[in-house]
Amino acid sequence: MLYQAAYAAEVSLFMTHKDDSYNHVLKYTGLLGGVQVFYVLMSIIRNKFTALFIGTWGMGLADLYNRTAELIGNTTNFGIAFSAVRHLAELQERGEQKALTLYVKLIRTWTLLTALLGAVTCLILSPWLSHLTLGDYHTAKGYALLSPMVAMTTLLGGEAAILKGMHRLRRMAAVSALGALLTMAVTIPLYWWLGVHGVIPVLLSTTTVVFLLNLHAATRDFPYRVGLFSKRLLSRGMHMLKLGSAYIAAGILGSGAEMGVRSFMVRTSSLAEAGLYTAGFTLIVSYARLVFVAMDADYFPRLSAAGDDVERRNFAINRQIDVLVLLMAPFLILFTLCLPLIIRLLYTPEFLHAVPMALCAAGCMFFKSVYAPISYLSLARGDSFVYLVMELLYDVVFVAAVIAGFYYGGLWGAGLGLSLANLFDLIAIFTVYSWRYGFKMERTTLRRCVLQFGLLLVGLFAAAQPIWGAKVALGGVVFTVSAGLSWDLLRRETSIAARWTALRQRFLNKK
């Protein structure tokens, strides 16, 4: 009876914070998402000049280099940047400063070792990578020069993990904003000066800038220390490698899948066509990702803290889905309606061929906003096998769907394949995680998802209309309804309406 009373009191206390949960999710989505908006604005300017100076061919080459470096980094970093966050957050919660200092030293030691491994691997494999991706050895030197980028990306992941584990979200936001500004300031002059030959210098210099910013932010709490020759310290890091093994395997599979799709496009079509796919992918996927920025930094630690409490886990997941869907649906509707204008603004008219692909791919981000919060369950539970199997399943379907779509339909087929692959992932994750972890989607959450998806389909139909009048009229109505439903939930479940009223009143009083 005493246990039941204590449990009931705990549930009651938890439920009293039900409204605060929406506020919490929205707060950190807003903080990091707001920074991402600034990042996107900087990217818009950067991509505009990049398109002008190096064209579709150059953008295709830059993306291929990026994906290859990402694949090598994911293959050699052992997932330390992800696996370290969980234990850091636990030590921070308990206030064990001495253990924290030692664990940070452990993280930096292992990230330095894996960074060196990544650089050497990239250097050795550069001729093979050139032949694999482009069918010749002309870019072998370029791949070899990516070695420092691979190393710094791994080191950057370690410093970012420290900031996440210590919950330094505001500092992370500041670093992200400054990094976006400096990246733009470096990229534009180099591409103007060197053209396509500036791809490697741009990748190296921008990675260096972002790494140094994260290093500076993390060393404010913990001065940089490593123990490369400490057997005790090295042996204690084995648990990180074990925990991160599934994450790293999933990263390898994901990067390999992306690289495989782009290599197929280059070999069967052209590098310019791959550049158009990259532009469409960037427009829909990369810019829409700003909605997900709080997932790793805030949501994952909260879900992990729920432990074996199924009710608390389901509550957190449903709230996260609600917020992601209510932000994603209106964003996608408005974004797709304005795509032709956005492409002219961000790129050049030759990139307008990416519009059909982007429209067909829009569904993938909506599906992701539903299944992403659920997919974190396996990581929060430390169930690496399930996580790896689900990632492998998605990657196989992704490659098959996108390649088949591109083969039979060109760019728009690739976009449709991307959406269908994510729909499959949603169904698979929902089915498996409901059975294994007891996940249940609330009826209200399900209704919101279905309603907003229906509105998104109508919005995409409007965006595909060739007549501007019909597009604006129908699309405007659909966007208004979608945004109105989202605002209604925010108004009822959070304090955003009260804050907006107070802000408006303060402004009026000043006048």
Automatic annotation (TrEMBL):
Keywords: Cell membrane, Membrane, Transmembrane, Transmembrane helix
InterPro entries: Poly_Biosynth_Transport
Domain of life: Bacteria
Major localisation: membrane
Topology relative to the membrane: Multi-pass membrane protein
GO cellular component: plasma membrane
Cell compartment(s), UniProt: Cell membrane
Chain segments annotated as transmembrane: 25-42, 110-130, 142-163, 175-194, 200-219, 240-257, 277-300, 321-347, 353-374, 386-408, 414-433, 445-464, 470-490
Listed name of the protein: Oligosaccharide flippase family protein
Species assigned in the record: Alloprevotella tannerae
